[in-house]
């Protein structure tokens, strides 16, 4: 993306923060948040600077964090990717475009994230050249839900009979019990 952006006759200032928030912003005309997991300070939204966010879920219904997890747990019918102008809120700015795809019963959170990232790359290539020249039309967000960052469960509780069956079917490293979910098979391997 950065090589492609560098060919668009603009100066690029890139910040690789190793998943830490950017602490000092250089002078810029257009800020781009692409899968950036931190809040941009309100001082950056002073009316002189423009920010665009590439969000890995359809807006407005899946604002915030852990959106692939939330989509599966909330049983939403589709997932996708969004590009929007940023404001001082969290994922609340006017929408430029939202693309969606249906969630199939066997999709995992990883499947949703990968498909969303592919859509984000398409949205990036489609809209950034125009955004470098001028504003792109947008529409306000209406409704939706915000999901804050939280500790997600990593264990699935089994009742005593399921635990006994799991232990009885596991002969590590030769054989592992399996479960199915949404028509997909998962092998359970001891840590």
The portion of residues forming beta strands comes to 15-25%
Structural class label: alpha/beta
Please provide the ordered H/E string of secondary-structure elements.
Answer: HEEEHEEHEHEE
| Whole-number total of structural domains | 2
Q: Give the termini separation.
A: 37 Å
CATH topology title of the largest domain: Rossmann fold
Largest sheet: 4 strands, mixed
Unreliably modeled segments: none
CATH superfamily of the largest domain: Formyl transferase, N-terminal domain
What radius of gyration results from the CA coordinates?
Answer: 21 Å
Helix content: 10-25%
The level 1 CATH classification of the largest domain is Alpha Beta
Structure, explained:
19% of the residues are buried. The chain has 2 domains: 2-147, Rossmann fold; 155-191, no CATH class. The chain is built from 4 helices and 8 strands; from the N terminus they run αβββαββαβαββ. By secondary structure, it is α/β, with parallel strands linked by helices. The chain has a 4-stranded mixed β-sheet with strand order 1-2-4-5, with helices on one face. α2 (67-73) crosses α3. β7 (178-181) and β8 form a beta hairpin.
List the defining traits of the structure above.
4 helices, single chain, four-stranded mixed sheet, two-stranded parallel sheet, elongated, 24% helix, alpha/beta, 2 domains, Rossmann fold, 191 residues, 8 strands
């Amino acid at each position: 993306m950065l090589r492609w952006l560098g060919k668009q006759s603009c100066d690029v200032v890139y910040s690789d923060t190793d998943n830490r928030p950017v602490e000092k912003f250089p002078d810029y005309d257009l800020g781009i948040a692409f899968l950036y997991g931190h809040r941009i300070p309100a001082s950056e939204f002073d009316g002189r600077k423009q920010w665009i966010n590439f969000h890995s879920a359809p807006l407005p219904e899946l604002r915030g964090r852990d959106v692939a997890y939330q989509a599966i747990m909330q049983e939403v019918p589709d997932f996708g990717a969004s590009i929007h102008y940023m404001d001082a809120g969290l994922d609340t700015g006017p929408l430029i475009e939202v693309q969606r795809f249906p969630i199939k019963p066997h999709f995992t959170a990883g499947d949703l994230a990968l498909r969303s990232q592919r859509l984000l790359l398409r949205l990036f290539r489609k809209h950034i050249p125009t955004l470098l020249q001028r504003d792109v039309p947008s529409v306000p967000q209406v409704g939706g839900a915000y999901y804050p960052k939280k500790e997600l469960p990593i264990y699935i509780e089994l009742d005593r009979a399921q635990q006994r069956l799991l232990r009885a079917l596991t002969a590590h490293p030769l054989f592992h019990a399996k479960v199915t979910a949404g028509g997909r098979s998962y092998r359970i391997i001891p840590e």
